[in-house]
Amino acid sequence: MTDDTADDDTATASDAWFAAEGAASAETEDLAEGAALGADDLARRVREGSAPAPDDWPTVAVETGFADDETDYESALREATLAAARATVRERERADDQQLIHAIRAADDARRTANELAERVAEWGGSLFELDGGPDHAGDEPEAATAPDTADAGVAYARSLADRDPDGPTEAHVVSLAKRVATLADEADRLEAYVEDHAPVVAPNLAAMAGATLAARLCSLAGGLEQLAKKPSGTLQVLGAEDALFAHLRGDAPSPKHGVIYTHDYVRNTHPAEGGSAARALAGKLTIAARVDHYSGDRRPELEEELDDRMATIRARRGGDGE
Amino acid sequence: MVTVSDADTTLPDGVQRRTFEGKESLATRGEPVYGEPTDGSWRAWDPHRSKLAATIESGLDTGLAADDTVLYLGAANGTTVGHVADFAGRTYAVEFAPRPVRDLLDVCETRPRLFPLLKDAREPATYAHVVESNVDAVVQDVATRGQAAVAARNAQFLADDGRLVLAIKARSEDVAREPQAVFEDVRAELRETFEILAETRLEPFHDDHLALVARPR
Question: Per the CATH hierarchy, to which homologous superfamily does domain A203-316 belong?
Answer without folding.
Answer: Nop domain (1.10.246.90)
